[in-house]
Structure formats: structure tokens, C-alpha cells
Automatic annotation (TrEMBL):
Residues 36-257 form the ABC transmembrane type-2 domain. The chain crosses the membrane at residues 38-58, 70-93, 114-141, 147-169, 176-198, 236-254. This is Transport permease protein. It is a multi-pass membrane protein. It comes from the Bacteria. The keyword Phosphoprotein does not apply. Belongs to the ABC-2 integral membrane protein family. Its main location: membrane. It comes from Streptomyces asiaticus subsp. ignotus. Keywords: Antibiotic resistance, Cell membrane, Membrane, Transmembrane, Transmembrane helix, Transport. It is found in: Cell membrane; Membrane. The keyword Membrane applies.
């Protein structure tokens, strides 16, 4: 017999890891059901890879195979499109429509929501990488290097872009986020070493561009996968700094409504 006012089963929040897993599963399903997001995260990187690998449009500055140069950059583009652009836009409109306001009154903490969204991004990226790798291999790509270095670059790149995307979505209006995220995507596509070698830019501009997260990610992946280089510590360091700054700022300034 229970005392007055005692409820069985005892009400209360689920353990935090379980809440994050449940939210991550929900975020993944929502992401995969969104046709516009799939266009951005899957179709565009695939088209860029196929088009620029088979048609002589852009001088990549590489002496080797075009696909060997492009494949690492397109993998970086996939991370950018999912972790930054897609997540920023989706989260911005969730905030506008009051979804985040309702989550704010749940036991899930702010950082837990960010962790769940980042987990959903990682799941999507795994599918992207499998698809893009298959396409690149069919086009004649011959990757080299250490898989651990590639994994570290992709994880830190995801953390960096996820933090920046959440920061934008949590501080700007949804329409502003939509415009800004797409503009940044296009600018980084051209100036981030994805399809155009940074060697094509003047020295001072190139030095500044090399500090961008997309340049560090694409350059690090290219050094490992194309040239067979060892652990790209400089690029990993740049991505780690962006990840800490982006996620820290998002946790500090993110507004739920």
C-alpha cells in the first residue's frame, strides 16, 4: 500500500542518455522525410561530383585524376550541407513554429538537444559518405591514407559546422537563417577548396581562406585520401577550434523562441 500522494510507477524524467537517443532518432526521421533537405544533402553533392569529374569545366589545379581531387572536397561539401546548411534551416523554422519552445519545457536540456541534433546529422552523413564513395569509386577514384585520420576529420568537421548552424538558427529569424545559410553554402562551395584549389587564390587571400573550417576539412581530407599523408594535425586543430567556439557560442546564445 502506498502513502497518500505517492504514484506508481514513480513519475519523472527518463535518464538523460535515453532522452538524447529518443530525440536523435526523431531528428533523423524528420531529416530523412524532408525532400528539400535531401536535395541539399544528397543530390547536390552527388551532382557536383559527377558533373565536375566527367566534364572539363573547372581547372582543379591537380596533376592527377580529377575525381581524385574532387572526391575529398565533395565529402567535405556533404558535411557542410548536412551539419550546417540543412540543420540551420530546419532548426530555424522549428524555432519559428514553436517546436523548440515546447522542447524547452521538457526535461531535455539545451545541450542535450544539440547533442541529439548532432547525432542525427552523423547518421545522415554516414549514408551520404557511403553513397558518394560508391559514386566516386565508379568514376575511378583511388583513395589512399589512414581511415582514422579521415574519421577524425569528419567528426570534428561535423562538430564545427553543427555548432555554427545551431548558433545561426538560434539567434536569427527563420527567413534570415534560410537566406544566410544558403549564401554561406554557395560562398564556401566556391572559396573553400571544394571544387577549386586554394592555390588559385592570391597568397594573402589563400592564407585567410585556409583558416575556414571547410578549407581545413577539404584540405585535410585531400591530403590524406589523395596524397596519402599522415595525421593532418594542423587541419584537425583548426576544426577543433571552430568546434569549440561554435558549440560553445550556440550553447550560450541559442534562444528557444
Amino acid at each position: 500500500m502506498t502513502a497518500t500522494g505517492t504514484f506508481l510507477p514513480k513519475p519523472g524524467a527518463a535518464p538523460l542518455p535515453r532522452m538524447i537517443r529518443a530525440q536523435a532518432a526523431l531528428e533523423t526521421r524528420m531529416l530523412l522525410r524532408n525532400g528539400e533537405q535531401l536535395l541539399l544533402t544528397v543530390v547536390i553533392p552527388s551532382l557536383v561530383l559527377v558533373l565536375f569529374s566527367t566534364v572539363d569545366i573547372v581547372d582543379t589545379g591537380s596533376d592527377g585524376s580529377t575525381v581524385d581531387f574532387l572526391a575529398p572536397g565533395v565529402l567535405a561539401l556533404a558535411v557542410l550541407s548536412t551539419a550546417f546548411t540543412g540543420q540551420a534551416i530546419a532548426t530555424g523554422f522549428e524555432r519559428r513554429y514553436g517546436v523548440l519552445k515546447r522542447l524547452a519545457v521538457s526535461p531535455l536540456p539545451r545541450w542535450g538537444l544539440m547533442a541529439a541534433k548532432t547525432c542525427a546529422v552523423l547518421v545522415t552523413e554516414v549514408m551520404q559518405i557511403v553513397l558518394l564513395t560508391a559514386i566516386a569509386l565508379a568514376l575511378g577514384w583511388k583513395p589512399h591514407g589512414d581511415p582514422l585520420s579521415v574519421a577524425l576529420l569528419l567528426i570534428l568537421g561535423t562538430a564545427a559546422f553543427s555548432g555554427l548552424g545551431l548558433l545561426m538558427a538560434g539567434t536569427l529569424k527563420a527567413e534570415a537563417t534560410l537566406a544566410a545559410a544558403n549564401l554561406v553554402f554557395l560562398l564556401l562551395l566556391v572559396s573553400g577548396g571544394v571544387i577549386v584549389s586554394l592555390d588559385k587564390f592570391p597568397g594573402g587571400v589563400r592564407s585567410a581562406l585556409e583558416l575556414l573550417p571547410i578549407s581545413a576539412l577539404s584540405g585535410g581530407l585531400r591530403d590524406v585520401l589523395q596524397d596519402g599523408a599522415g595525421m593532418p594535425w594542423r587541419d584537425l586543430g583548426i576544426l577543433a577550434v571552430w568546434a569549440v567556439l561554435g558549440l560553445g557560442a550556440a550553447a550560450r546564445f541559442f534562444r528557444w523562441e
